[in-house]
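Deviation from plan, reported transparently: heme C complex.
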Amino acid sequence: MTKYPRQESHAVPMEEGTRLRPTPVANSKKQGALGWRGLVIGMAMGLGLMGCERLPVDVNQGGYRGTGMEQVVNPRIEAVKLAANQAPPALEPVEEGGPKASQVYQNVQVLGDLSVAQFNRLMVAMTAWVSPEQGCAYCHNVQNFADDGLYTKLVARRMTQMTQTINDRWQAHVGQTGVTCFTCHRGQNLPEKRWFTEPEMQIAGRLLGNDSGQNRAGVEAVANSDLPYDPYTPFLLESNPIRVNGTTALPTGNRMSTKQTEWTYALMMHMSDGLGVNCTYCHNTRAIAEWEQSPPARVTAWYGIRMVREINNEFITGLTPIHPPNRLGVMGDIAKVNCATCHQGVNKPLYGAQMLKAHPELSGPNALKDAMEIRGPGKPIAPQSQGPEPTPSPTSFLKGSASTGQLEGHAVARAN
Ligand code: HEC
Ligand code: HEC
Ligand code: HEC
Ligand code: HEC
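Because the crystal trials were delayed, the predicted structure below was used instead.
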């Protein structure tokens, strides 16, 4: 790790902009006029500077000199992120023995192998992770805990299976660190970072025509760039191909268009922003597509993309019908997961806090059994055995007829 020398001379003009404030003068009328002009100038300058981060920043080098494999870290932003991404203290462990939850309670479908003490400890933890304000009543009819009447309980049961599956089947992404409900929920009913499908803009009668899903100001999804503003639907729900680079020096049939490439970039903007890293965290930008030249984090990210698709398709979208309308997006779809849902601007969620260690019931062989039941034994995913595909296959992108350019599917497929 190398640090750039802190250049104090840079820090001065970028400082808060104090000298731009209107100067107070004696004459009240004049003061008003000046004050107003000063305010406008001040606001204009303020807007101009808003996009910049105050120097100095630290630069961590992650590759050979001259390759630009660097991460720019602003210590002031980092301090805020660190404070906002702390794991809560773990609950005291409890005895394993005694009767099982399935023997004592009436309607335990997923967590039946836990001892009653373990089961209750998890209920207390879940309450702290998801509904600390509402308490047990957020998921339960407290007159009858076995009742499945509240949709939140049904969602929580499915979320439990989802969490177990992530921890068991997706260790190629989450490692031994794993996830708990807190990784996404952070003490809130709904994770702060979630997404809905964006409706396509209507063309009829509009002078400006169709915006092709791009160029909308203030879109967090793509970190305010003018790239397509819904990179989630095609890549994190559907499995449209992400690779766009040709594999040969001369054009030999790569049909990927600039427009298609913009969609890939939009996803990459989300991934960078969601993890709080630069492109060079996963790529050597002299050869973006080359796996051999990419840092290992890119392979982790490859699994992450597949994991998120499975989370959304296998666990979350199926819950749509039980949700009240106020939980759904304009397209009637349920809130879904992206990279930021867990990561929240940090390369490892909660800076790699080992929360799962205190809750092995959210992983382990018991969970595996449940996962097999959901999925069926005939359909293993075993991501470990499945390395990144070595070469892109440009033709597989063309779902429709290549000759007419008529492509099926989501907006992403409207390239060319
Ligand atoms: C975020 C949702 C959620 C919260 C909050 C929650 N529970 Fe649960 N609870 C569940 C789910 C889901 C099940 C069913 C688990 C299963 O099927 O394996 C359950 C089952 C139970 C059962 C078993 C009832 C039976 O007879 O089948 C009891 C007892 C229970 N919870 C107690 C509590 C207590 C006490 C609290 C508060 C400290 C609490 N729960 C908070 C989701 C929740
Ligand atoms: C990978 C991220 C993730 C994890 C891990 C996760 N959730 Fe969720 N949860 C979501 C998302 C996204 C939604 C929004 C979807 C929806 O509306 O149901 C949600 C919604 C919910 C809701 C519905 C809340 C409401 O008010 O509509 C409950 C209850 C819930 N989760 C419980 C849990 C529990 C309990 C766990 C741990 C066993 C858990 N979740 C783990 C992402 C996650
Ligand atoms: C967290 C890791 C990560 C970050 C950060 C990241 N990428 Fe990627 N990038 C990937 C992965 C993984 C793939 C391959 C996806 C696949 O094949 O499914 C990829 C693919 C690409 C491709 C397509 C390569 C090809 O084979 O055609 C381009 C272009 C690209 N990224 C550009 C960028 C840019 C520009 C940035 C910064 C805005 C960026 N990436 C940030 C992980 C990352
Ligand atoms: C369900 C929660 C969850 C989601 C969603 C998620 N991740 Fe992760 N990710 C993790 C956890 C947990 C780790 C830490 C693994 C470890 O400690 O080994 C991690 C680690 C990583 C790393 C390695 C970081 C490093 O410094 O080594 C990369 C890169 C990454 N994730 C990219 C992504 C991308 C890209 C997405 C979206 C496509 C994504 N993640 C979605 C939970 C998640």
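The pocket of heme C (ligand 1) is lined by residues 105-111, 123-124, 126-127, 130-131, 135-136, 138-140, 145-146, 152-153, 156-157 (CB under 6 Å). We consider this an acceptable substitute for the interim report.
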